[in-house]
Amino acid sequence: MFEIFKDKSGAFRFRLKAKNGQIILASEGYTQKTNCQKGVSSVKRNSKNEDRFELKQSTNKKWFFNLKAGNGQIVGTSELYDNETNAKNGVKSVMNNAPTAETVDLSK
C-alpha cells in the first residue's frame, strides 16, 4: 500500500509498505500533492523494470537501492539493509507490491 502524508516541514511524501507493514520504499519531499501522486504513478510504472533499480552500499557498509524513472531521476529510496541479499529481496518486494498497490491519502 502507498501512503501519502505530510512530513513535519509540510512537504508531501509517499511510502510503500509491504503486506507485513514494513516500509520498503520512500520518496523525497514534494511541495505539491499532485507531484507526490505523480511520484506514486512513476513508482508503479518503473517498478516493473528491474533495470530501473540501482543497488548501492552506503558509507557505513549498509545496502540500499534507488528506483529511477526513465529519465534517470530517483523516484524512491529503500531502507538500509545489512547485506546485499536482503537489499535484492527488497527490490523483489517493491517489484511485487508496487504495480497494483492501493494508495491511501493520510495528508487530509
UniProtKB/TrEMBL annotation:
Domain of life: Bacteria
InterPro entries: DUF1508 (IPR010879), UPF0339_domain (IPR051141), YegP-like_sf (IPR036913)
Domain named DUF1508: residues: 7-54, 59-105
PANTHER family, alphabetized: PTHR40606, UPF0339 PROTEIN YEGP (PTHR40606:SF1)
Name of protein: DUF1508 domain-containing protein
